[in-house]
Design brief:
There is one protein chain. The chain is globular, with a radius of gyration of 16 Å. The mean pLDDT is 98. Strand 4, helix 4 (95-104) and strand 5 form a beta-alpha-beta unit. It has one domain (2-203): Aldolase class I (TIM Barrel), CATH 3.20.20.70. It is 31% helix and 21% strand. It has 205 residues and is of the alpha/beta class. The structure holds D-xylitol-5-phosphate and zinc ion. The site of zinc ion has 6 residues, from strand 2. D-xylitol-5-phosphate binds next to strand 2, strand 8 and helix 7.
């Protein structure tokens, strides 16, 4: 199991200390939630912030783009230091093109689907993906309640070459359910940052 803490819930003014603490708990991935105020109402940070923190760690930068027209921004996120770029299926008319552009830069590529989007919609794209990100809450903010039907999506996706990542409302109980259903990566924001000892809890699942 891979744990990818979402720094949305971290103290971003003390990000170096936060990252070092995660590191001391053996965390290897960092989930970076980019929101543009268009695809989702909230605005978080952009590629400049990612570029700024890139020298602080060699963790895998797992960038989750909740932005409109992601195709226009791929290069800047690659240059900022993303290792994997995940965009939203709902954010772009031509997802095949976005996949192609991300791959052309030699970084990992993921697609994310919102709770209302059915797995069948991305079936034709799966063979090109390194990762599928199931949103188990409505994208846009942390601290929401896990949507149980996400477990059926994990089950429907399991068995492929790609990694299955779940994002939103992950805690001890829901995290266990996701892993049992076949998830490979758990994203957790509020659960991890309210008490970093919870990293151990999630890793022990
Ligand atoms: C929500 C983000 C998540 C969020 C998860 O749109 O994609 O990554 O940070 O936060 P929690 O774990 O608090 O639900
Ligand atoms: Zn996310």
């Amino acid at each position: 199991m891979i744990l990818s803490p979402s720094i949305l819930a971290a103290d971003r003014d003390n990000i170096e200390q936060e990252i070092n603490e995660l590191k001391s708990f053996g965390v290897k991935w960092l989930h970076l939630d980019v929101m543009d105020g268009l695809f989702v109402p909230a605005l978080t940070f952009d590629s400049k912030f990612i570029k700024k923190i890139r020298p602080l760690t060699d963790m895998v930068f797992d960038v989750h783009l909740m932005i409109e027209q992601p195709i226009n921004h791929i290069k800047e996120y690659v240059e900022a230091g993303a290792d994997i770029i995940t965009f939203h299926y709902e954010a772009q008319k031509n997802p095949e093109e976005v996949i192609k552009v991300i791959k052309s830069f030699g970084v990992g590529v993921g697609i994310s689907i919102k709770p209302a989007t059915d797995v069948s919609e991305i079936k034709g794209l799966l063979s090109d993906l390194d990762l599928v990100l199931i949103m188990s809450v409505e994208p846009g903010k942390g601290g929401q309640k896990f949507i149980p039907s996400s477990l059926e999506k994990i089950d429907a996706l399991k068995g492929g070459e790609y990694l299955i990542e779940v994002d939103g409302g992950v805690n001890e109980q829901t995290g266990k359910q996701c892993l049992d259903a076949g998830a490979d990566i758990l994203v957790a924001g509020s659960f991890v940052f309210k008490d970093k000892e919870n990293i151990k809890v999630l890793k022990s699942l």
